[in-house]
Every structure is written in structure tokens, then in C-alpha cells.
Design a protein that fits this description.
five-stranded antiparallel β-sheet; OB fold (Dihydrolipoamide Acetyltransferase, E2P); six-stranded mixed β-sheet; 20 strands; 355 residues; 8 helices; alpha+beta; Rossmann fold; nucleotide-binding; transmembrane transporter activity; binds adenosine-5'-triphosphate; ATP binding
Length: 355
């Protein structure tokens, strides 16, 4: 069931179109991330859903109601920001109970709901502590319990984990997703961190310059990006200008940097395109089997894998090599690169080319 509808949502500040005609939907129980670089309009979108900022144009509908005339505090939303905004002079239990007290929930029910929320975030044992005596991850759980205890129709998260260090952040990603599933609460999260969006979401809304770029499952935005922007914003990608020469049921033929390549069948017309291939889809092969050859210029060790920068006639390629303990190729050596035609993505041209 479509639960949240953003329909042509627009917000302008003078000449700046912070959010530009954004249309997308969120299903009940779904976890959707708004992902994009700084300034792309994620926070403005969330603020409009929350009711803190009014749209310049377009509509927001939640559970069949148009939110235009409903003030923020009556929207029944749970909100967690990057800074936890806890009451420092109140214990964890008091912090979580606050929203229910404001709503004049009877004492017995309040106690039960606060206990349930604290159990859900695994903080039952710390209920009588003050936030200042807690770690960043624990405080973020308190903020989450406080948002969930009111049983919100919709949970809004704005960069909720960005104050945490890398390891805790990864732990909390899994934890937050578990809590969201358990509570069954429809959630919209703002993040600029692509790995976080991929790890946590049912669907990812990729934005750039106020505009929607793509809405898909994490798998699909990564595997089948529809634009150059999406292919390079999510993960690493080798992108080159190219010319699509022909395209039939056996696949496509592409020319790039003097190399003739084969790709999957696409709907583009022959002409300028951009091609993209992920570093982890490239193999090092024998000279005769290579699609393009080049010289290793850089070699960086990441623990689980090596990343090579290889200079070729098409341009520089990043090539990921799984670390299987084998000796690694030397800087300065010649390598031959190959990939399967179906691993090549053919995208709309970003630049005019004369390949
Ligand atoms: N109150 C405001 N007045 C004027 N311009 C604003 C205002 N709020 C946001 N903007 C502009 O709107 C655009 C989108 O801002 P927004 O904060 O939504 O981006 P964001 O994607 O959340 O970025 P970040 O990740 O850096 O928070 C930016 O160009 C920003 O400068």
C-alpha cells in the first residue's frame, strides 16, 4: 500500500531550487533512504515531510491525508536528528517518557510503553542513567526509543549515525534496521553515505541538485544505474565517453578510445553514449584475451582487496583484485584487462565525443 506520496514537491530559496519537482512514493513498512551529495536537497525534503518547512509547490500525502494543512506537531511523526537532542538533565527513562507525558498517556500504559521501547533498543539496563554518562551509540539508541515510543506513523531520520565512529556506525546500521523491522515503522532516512544507504534500505532515492535521479532497490541502483551520476556516486566505476555503433539481439558494439567493445543489448540509438564498468568486474587476463591493455600506475592495499590504477588508451581504469594472499602485480608492469559484455553499462552520453 502506498503510504507516503511526494508529488511534484518543490522548494525554492530565491534562485536556488533546493528541491525540484520531486515525485516518489513510500510503501507502508518500507525503509527508504534519500541519498545524494551535500546540497542536493535531502534535508529540505525531510523538513517538508516533517512540516518544519513549507513547500513552494507540490503535495505530500501521508496515509491518504494531504499534509498541507496539518501542522508539524499533529503529523504524528517520530524524528531523529544527527545530534541526539536529548534532555541532559533527565534520565534515559524520563527522556523516553517525555513524549507520552505530553500526550497525557495514563501512567500504567506509559510505563509499559517506555519499558517496551527501552527493551527494543537494548537499553533496559541503563534506564536510570543520564545521557552524559553514555556513549554516542547508546545516546542514539535513546533518541530512537524516544521517537518510537509514540508509535509514529512515519519515522524520519536525518543522518542519524554520522556522529559515530566508523565501527560503531556499522554496528548501529544493522541495529537500526533490526529495530525498524521489529517496530514495523515506515522510515525515511537522509544520508550522504552510499554504503549506509545500500546496507539499510529497501529502496534508495538518489538525488542530485534538487532532482530525483533514480529510485530503486540498493541492488538495482548499484547494478543498473540509469545515469553517469548514479553510476559514479554509488561505489567506484570506470566511465568513458564512447560511441554506440550498432545494437541488435546479439548485443551492442561500442567504440571507445580506439577500442571496439561488446556490450549488452540496450534501447539507446547509435551515437554518443557513456560506458561504465565496475572495478570488481574486471579480470586480469593473458595478452590474447584482453579487451584493453595498460600499465599499472598505482597499487593500493585495502585489506580484503587491492585496487590498481591502470593507464590504458581508453583512459585510467580502477581494477579491484581480491586479496588471495598471492603476490601482487608490480607497479610499471603491463596488464591486460577483460570483462564480460553484460558487465558493461551503457548510459546516456554526458559529453559529446568523437571516438
Ligand atoms: N533556509 C535556506 N535558505 C536558503 N537556502 C537554503 C536554505 N536551506 C537550504 N538551502 C539551500 O538548498 C539546497 C539544498 O539544501 P539541503 O540542506 O536540503 O541539502 P542536503 O542535501 O541536505 O545537504 P547536506 O547533506 O549538506 O545537509 C542547498 O543549496 C542549500 O544551500
Amino acid at each position: 500500500m502506498t503510504f507516503l506520496v511526494l508529488d511534484g514537491l518543490t522548494k525554492t530559496y530565491g534562485d536556488v531550487r533546493a528541491v525540484d519537482n520531486l515525485t516518489c512514493t513510500v510503501e507502508k513498512g518500507e525503509f527508504v533512504s534519500l541519498l545524494g551529495p551535500s546540497g542536493c536537497g535531502k534535508t529540505t525534503t525531510l523538513q517538508m515531510i516533517a512540516g518544519f518547512t513549507s513547500p513552494t509547490g507540490g503535495r505530500i500525502e501521508l496515509a491518504g491525508r494531504d499534509l498541507a494543512s496539518i501542522p508539524a506537531r499533529q503529523r504524528g511523526l517520530g524524528i531523529v536528528f544527527q545530534t541526539y537532542a536529548l534532555f541532559m538533565h533527565m534520565t534515559v527513562r524520563e527522556n523516553v517518557a517525555f513524549g507520552l507525558e505530553m500526550r497525557k498517556v495514563p501512567k500504567a500504559e506509559l510505563t509499559r510503553r517506555v519499558n517496551d521501547a527501552l527493551e527494543m533498543v537494548h537499553l533496559g539496563a541503563l534506564a536510570d542513567r543520564y545521557p552524559r554518562a553514555m556513549s554516542g551509540g547508546q545516546r542514539q539508541r535513546v533518541a530512537l526509543a524516544r521517537a518510537l515510543v509514540i508509535e509514529p506513523e512515519l519515522l524520519l531520520l536525518d543522518e542519524p549515525l554520522s556522529n559515530l565512529d566508523a565501527k560503531l556506525r556499522e554496528e548501529m546500521q544493522l541495529e537500526l534496521r533490526r529495530i525498524q523491522r521489529e517496530a514495523g515503522v515506515t522510515t525515511v532516512m537522509v544520508t550522504h553515505d552510499q554504503s549506509e544507504a545500500l546496507a539499510m534500505s529497501d529502496r534508495v532515492v538518489v538525488m542530485d541538485k534538487g532532482r530525483l535521479q533514480q529510485v530503486d532497490s540498493p541492488f538495482d541502483v548499484y547494478e543498473t544505474p540509469r545515469s553517469s551520476f548514479v553510476s559514479t556516486f554509488l561505489g567506484k566505476s570506470n566511465n568513458f565517453p564512447a560511441t554506440l555503433q550498432s545494437n541488435d539481439e546479439t548485443g551492442s558494439v561500442i567504440l571507445s578510445g580506439g577500442q571496439t567493445l561488446r556490450g549488452p543489448r540496450v534501447s539507446h540509438l547509435p551515437g554518443p553514449v557513456e560506458i561504465a564498468v565496475r572495478p570488481e568486474r574486471i579480470e586480469l587476463v593473458d595478452a590474447g584475451a584482453g579487451l584493453v591493455s595498460g600499465t599499472v600506475r598505482e597499487r593500493i592495499f585495502f585489506g580484503a582487496q587491492w585496487m590498481l590504477a591502470v593507464e590504458t588508451p581508453m583512459g585510467e581504469f580502477l581494477v579491484a583484485r581480491r586479496n588471495a594472499g598471492a603476490r601482487e602485480v608490480e607497479i610499471g608492469s603491463t596488464v591486460h584487462l577483460a570483462w564480460a559484455p553484460h558487465d558493461l553499462r551503457i548510459l546516456p552520453a554526458e559529453h559529446e565525443v568523437s571516438a
